[in-house]
């Protein structure tokens, strides 16, 4: 690959940021509302960083690179429809439809 040329997935590289917290989901008021709507424990926020400036015209490349990135697959949590348990994208990838 020539210098400056993008890789197969658009050249994006992602990193999981497990230490990132979202105070908006843990405030007393929000926790109360989530409990009221039976959503407490059924919604999570996760942070991932990436190494390039986001360019809206390349959004499709960005999304494809995100879901295929080796740092995203074992860390991205999904709520299973069948069991109601949190699973990782890597566990569920066999059941995902090819985009």
UniProtKB/TrEMBL annotation:
A GO cellular component annotation in the UniProt record: axoneme
Keyword terms, alphabetized: Cell projection, Cytoplasm, Cytoskeleton
Pfam families named among the record's database cross-references: CFAP300 (PF14926)
InterPro entries named in the record: CFAP300
Principal location: cytoplasm
Keyword match Cytoplasm: yes
Subcellular location(s) of the protein: Cytoplasm, Cytoskeleton, Cilium axoneme
Keyword Transferase: no
Family listed: Belongs to the CFAP300 family.
Job description of the protein: Cilium- and flagellum-specific protein that plays a role in axonemal structure organization and motility. May play a role in outer and inner dynein arm assembly.
PANTHER family (alphabetical): CILIA- AND FLAGELLA-ASSOCIATED PROTEIN 300 (PTHR31078)
Name this protein carries in UniProt: Cilia- and flagella-associated protein 300
Species in which this protein is naturally found: Piliocolobus tephrosceles
This protein's encoding gene: CFAP300
